[in-house]
Write a structure and sequence with these properties.
Layout (H helix, E strand, L loop, with lengths): L3 E5 L4 E7 L5 E5 L6 H10 L3 E6 L11 H8 L2 E5 L9 E3 L4 E4 L2 E7 L8 E9 L2 E9 L2 E2 L2 E2 L9 H12 L7 E4 L9 E2 H7 L8 H9 L9 H8 L24 E3 L1 H9 L3 E5 L3 H7 L6 E2 L3 E2 L4 E2 L3 H8 L5 E5 L5 H11 L4 E4 L30
Parallel strand pairs: 3-4, 4-5, 5-6, 10-13, 15-21, 16-17, 16-20, 20-21
Antiparallel strand pairs: 1-2, 2-3, 7-8, 8-9, 9-10, 11-12, 13-14, 18-19
This protein binds fe (iii) ion.
């Protein structure tokens, strides 16, 4: 059994569909947003039920359709835990196995192209014995490897991943890369070990030097693709293009979606401040990465006398502040106050729970939890 290999000419990206012949359960690796209908068609033609949509890393050159595949095909999303794709339902770690039917995909942590990058190993039983496949993303390419000069890349780490993790696989393992720009489709571990131009006969120092002197142009879509991919590509969803843009507001830096706020926090660009009361965090739930700083406090919703000092301390390093409350009302007042204090403060639209619906139930019309961003109950 071989994977189905699909190609996106615009970004030269390979997408792979793997399936279990008996149960028809399938996995898709590195799906591309504008190929969604093609991918759904392939799944239909083969009578497959998609159970996993997974990424090798947070891509800079295309936007994933993983979030959309979860909506349309019922797949669960999974991504390497080091990639900070907070919307992925399962955060993958080294050695983890992802089951589909009677098959398993083995996660291999292969950092270097990005700090979180993973490869996936698949061993199938055929009539002539086992067949082995490895999906290497941008870690190992045919006669090459992914760049390491942006997005948390690290040439030393890549050298270790290539030589100690991937080249430790059996030589007959088929290599299925994340891209190819010259019409090639696959290779093998043996072939790459012997002939890969970046590695063969190179010392670790020579490899690192080469990687650090590539001087490649920045990928065309990086500014758009990376933030979108940190939310499983859901920038097309619901709010459409507006989802990842700042809306102007009076008296503070602007309004942002929960998804954009989370992308900023994950990129280290913003501090997430929860301005709800201690009681709301305890009873309704909280975001583990948020700093608690109540705007008003029970009992009686009196102003928190420590708010000014607290917010100044949180904004002291010059990062943006993104303020979260229940439904995006208190956080406006708090953002205006923070702005008066000279800070760059944004209000998170919809808040943690969103507005109440017709039955006075919150949480169904939007908000942090509704959009599947990380939260916990104490
Ligand atoms: Fe990449």
């Amino acid at each position: 059994m071989s994977p189905i290999q699909l190609f996106d000419p615009a970004s030269s990206t390979f997408t792979y569909i793997l399936f279990d012949a008996d149960s028809r359960e399938a996995v898709i690796i590195d799906p591309v947003d504008h190929q969604l209908s093609r991918d759904l068609q392939v799944l239909r033609e083969h009578g497959l039920r998609l159970v996993w949509a997974i990424e090798t890393h947070a891509h800079a050159d295309h936007i994933t359709s993983a979030g959309l595949l979860a909506e349309h095909a019922g797949a669960r999303t999974a991504a390497p835990e080091g990639c900070q794709i907070g919307t992925a339902a399962v955060q993958l770690t080294d050695g983890q196995r992802l089951p589909f039917g009677s098959q398993q995909l083995h996660c291999l942590y292969t950092p270097g192209h990005t700090a979180g990058s993973m490869s996936y190993f698949w061993e199938t039983r055929g009539p002539h014995g086992p067949a082995r496949h490895v999906f290497t993303g941008d870690t190992l390419l045919i006669n090459g490897c992914g760049r390491t000069d942006f997005q948390s890349g690290n040439a030393e780490a890549l050298y270790r991943s290539l030589t100690q993790v991937l080249f430790a696989l059996p030589e007959d393992t088929t290599v299925w890369p994340g891209h190819d720009y010259q019409g090639r489709t696959h290779s093998s571990i043996g072939q790459e070990k012997r002939g890969n131009a970046r590695l063969a006969g190179q010392t670790p120092e020579q490899f690192v030097n080469t990687m650090n002197q590539l001087n490649l142009p920045k990928p065309q879509r990086i500014d758009e693709a990376v933030p979108a991919n940190l939310t499983s590509g859901l920038r097309h969803d619901a709010g459409g293009e507006a989802l990842l843009s700042v809306k102007p507001a009076a008296g503070y830096a602007g309004d942002v979606s929960p998804q954009l706020a989370w992308a900023w926090v994950q990129a280290g660009q913003a501090v997430l401040v929860d301005v709800r009361t201690d009681a709301e965090r305890a009873w309704v739930g909280f975001v583990p990465d948020a700093q608690p700083l109540a705007w008003k406090q029970w009992p009686g919703m009196a102003m928190n006398p420590d708010f000014d000092a607290g917010i100044q301390a949180l904004g002291a390093d010059g990062r943006k502040l993104v303020l979260l409350c229940r439904s995006g009302v208190r956080s406006v007042a708090a953002a205006q106050r923070a702005t008066e204090l000279g800070l760059q403060a944004y209000n998170i639209l919809e808040g943690f729970e969103g507005d109440p619906d017709a039955a006075a139930q919150r949480g169904k019309l939007g908000g942090w939890r509704f959009h599947g961003l990380p939260w916990r109950q104490s």
